[in-house]
């Protein structure tokens, strides 16, 4: 005789799962209606409406007419998370200088399971063209930085050996036609879980020149960041 336990949907874990599901529905969208949230989450309309009302009271969400948006409390918590992020604080001066010297989009990305998450982003004049933001998460195998990190630490083969030898990856798979990306890991083989990348118009990105000054500057910045903040960076990633 086996004992089967049923989980009450009102238990704290189930409730938190539903809250997380509702908040995740806003990924990539500025505002959603109740009908859109129900369609995205698959939750019963009555349950979704009840939880949404509670989140509005907590200021996690804001309601204007039929539309829901992320609330000021989440903005406050998100800003605090960035402020407390030692990795972001340690890297910021290096990224700012790289952006100043190149005029290109500069990003620092970290592996998070099968995804990569943007931890710092400086776009300057390209800001309106690039959808990325701090906290933006996407599948690692769909991005150059994700593939470079996996290749640098795990994979084998001719292409992988080239990345492990040079410490740099090149690609044209960007959200903007005519743009390219150069990426390099931060840290040695087997240790690097974050990467530094620059992105911009192909006329400014000599992807066919493996030893270009731009590539050298990117590698130099990543090495400097690792030397000056490697210990704090590693501690920060382990703590998170």
Automatic annotation (TrEMBL):
Signal peptide: none annotated. InterPro entries: GAF-like_dom_sf, HTH_MetabolicPath_Reg, Tscrpt_reg_IclR_C, Tscrpt_reg_IclR_N, WH-like_DNA-bd_sf, WH_DNA-bd_sf. Residues 13-72 form the HTH iclR-type domain. Keywords: DNA-binding, Transcription, Transcription regulation. The keyword Transcription regulation applies. SUPFAM superfamilies: GAF domain-like, Winged helix' DNA-binding domain. Residues 73-231 form the IclR-ED domain. One of its GO terms (molecular function) is DNA-binding transcription factor activity. GO terms for biological process: negative regulation of DNA-templated transcription. Gene3D superfamilies: 3.30.450.40, Winged helix-like DNA-binding domain superfamily/Winged helix DNA-binding domain. This is Helix-turn-helix domain-containing protein. It comes from Rhodococcus qingshengii.
């Amino acid at each position: 005789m086996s004992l089967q336990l049923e989980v009450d949907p009102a238990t704290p874990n189930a409730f938190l799962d539903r809250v997380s599901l509702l908040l995740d529905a806003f990924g990539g969208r500025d505002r959603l209606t109740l009908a859109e949230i129900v369609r995205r989450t698959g939750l019963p309309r009555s349950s979704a409406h009840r939880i949404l009302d509670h989140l509005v009271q907590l200021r996690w969400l804001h309601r204007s007419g039929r539309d829901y948006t992320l609330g000021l409390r989440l903005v406050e918590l998100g800003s605090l998370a960035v402020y407390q992020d030692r990795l972001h604080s340690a890297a910021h001066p290096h990224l700012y200088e790289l952006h100043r010297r190149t005029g290109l989009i500069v990003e620092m990305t970290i592996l998070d399971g099968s995804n990569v998450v943007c931890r710092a982003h400086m776009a300057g004049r390209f800001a309106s063209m690039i959808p990325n933001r701090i906290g933006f998460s996407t599948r690692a195998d769909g991005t150059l930085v994700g593939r470079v990190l996996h290749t640098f630490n795990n994979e084998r083969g001719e292409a992988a050996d080239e990345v492990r030898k040079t410490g740099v990856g090149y690609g044209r798979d960007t959200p903007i036609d005519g743009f390219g990306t150069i990426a390099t890991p931060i840290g040695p083989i087997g240790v690097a879980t974050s990467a530094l990348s620059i992105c911009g118009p192909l006329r400014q990105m000599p992807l066919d020149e493996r030893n270009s000054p731009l590539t050298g500057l990117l590698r130099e910045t990543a090495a400097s960041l690792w030397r000056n903040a490697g210990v704090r960076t590693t501690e920060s990633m382990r703590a998170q």
